[in-house]
Amino acid sequence: MTWYKTGTVAVTPGSNAVLGTGTSFIANARVGDAFRGPDGEWYEVTNIASDTAVSIAPNYQGVAEVAGGYSLAPMQGYVKDSADALRAATQVIASGVADMQEQVAAATEAATSAGRSKTAATEQAGIATAAAEASTDNKDAAQLAAQQSLGSAQTSGTAAERSETARDSIIQSEQAAAASAAAAADSAEQAEAVTVGKAASGDNNDITSLRALTADGFDRIRQGLAPLVGATASVAGVKGLVPPPSIADRLKVLSGAGTWVPLPTGAAWGAITGTLSAQTDLQQALDALSSRIGATMVNVNGGANLAVNQIYTVTNPFPNETIICEAQVLFGGVWANPRWFGTSGTTTYGTTAGQRFSTTAPGDIYVRTGTSAMTVEPSAGGSAFPAGMGNQAALPCRVLVWRVKS
């Protein structure tokens, strides 16, 4: 091959980069080629980045050049390498063909052996024949692959893989034939075991014995189990309970003594008899408990409007009792708890109620109104009033009171 010298190159002292102008390095250079630089020294091409850029080793030793002359000399033995590769591929192909011929012969012998299996194993023999046919197909495919592999070593490698597949198919054929013979033998043994001693016809009384069933057990099944013994109308049997004396006694119950006795009668349940109204002590206790349960409503300020920033006292409707209170105001025909809302400082909105306690007993109810209004807009205070009620300064008020059970 001739040296490549087209174009010019630019080099820099101490750098491994060679930049070409008018060059085609990709098509005309190989890694390992010799590069003769503008300084007349020889370098090795270590990388080809593009048609106008290559790398060399060692780094450039001469002076800088912008458009210097150069030469690329091929140093690889391409022709010898190709010949050696073709020779090695031919040897591999020849060896593969010989192996495949032996495998074809073995597959033919396995198919013949499978054909001599017993008649009862026809289905299994068919599987073996199919496997033999598959191995023949693999043989043809392997021969075709061998012919195609004469052009390159890579194709010959594919043929070798196919020959391995053919050998596996032969082994599978032999295994299928052996399985067919074993299955035929098993079928014959099973048929013999089923038919030995089997009666062709006859009545049930022709059967003289059954496995796992004694003569006594068979007789009990045929005639029915013997009745339980030892049980009378008044005595418990060894194997059963005392039967009821008669059909009229079927509503009786079996006592712990083993006898049938009638169910208890009357309305006696412990010490309580008769109706609930007859239990005067129980009725009084229930009435007293009922009087302690419930709630009541108490008006504040006699039903008149309340003013802001005031405290009103309401007498406890359950004297000396602990209670729970809720203040409600009337607005737009709706009674509801206006809630309580405070802002910065001491400005508050709403109405609240609560019970005061002394050191010895519960006391009366105190109702407090906000410093600026008795209500607060529901969106701010969360009351049950409709939105848009605003902050109202004077409204009627009542207190809902629940008695706390003690």
Structural account:
This protein is α+β, with helices and mostly antiparallel strands. Among the domains are: 69 residues; 106 residues; 109 residues, Immunoglobulins (Immunoglobulin-like). The protein has 7 helices and 17 strands. The protein has a 7-stranded antiparallel sheet with strand order 6-1-2-5-4-3-7. Helix 2 runs antiparallel to helix 3 and helix 2 runs parallel beside helix 4. The protein is flat. The relative contact order is 0.06.
| CATH fold title of the domain at 295-403 | Immunoglobulin-like
| Intertermini distance | 118 Å
Helix content: 25-40%
Mean pLDDT: 75
The total of helices stands at 7
Structural class designation: alpha+beta
Assembly annotation: single chain
Major sheet: order of its strands?
A: 6-1-2-5-4-3-7
N-to-C series of helices and strands: EEHEEEEEHHHHEEHEEEEEEEHE
The parts where pLDDT drops under 50 for at least 5 residues are none
Looking at this structure, what is the CATH superfamily of the domain at 295-403? Answer: Immunoglobulins
- Report the radius of gyration as a whole number of Å: 57 Å
SSE order and pairing:
Layout: E1 8-11, E2 17-21, H1 25-28, E3 34-36, E4 42-50, E5 53-57, E6 65-68, E7 71-73, H2 78-115, H3 122-148, H4 153-195, H5 215-223, E8 253-254, E9 260-261, H6 280-291, E10 295-299, E11 311-314, E12 323-331, E13 334-336, E14 340-342, E15 348-357, E16 362-369, H7 378-381, E17 397-403
Antiparallel strand pairs: 1-2, 1-6, 2-5, 3-4, 3-7, 4-5, 8-9, 10-17, 11-16, 12-13, 12-17, 14-15, 15-16
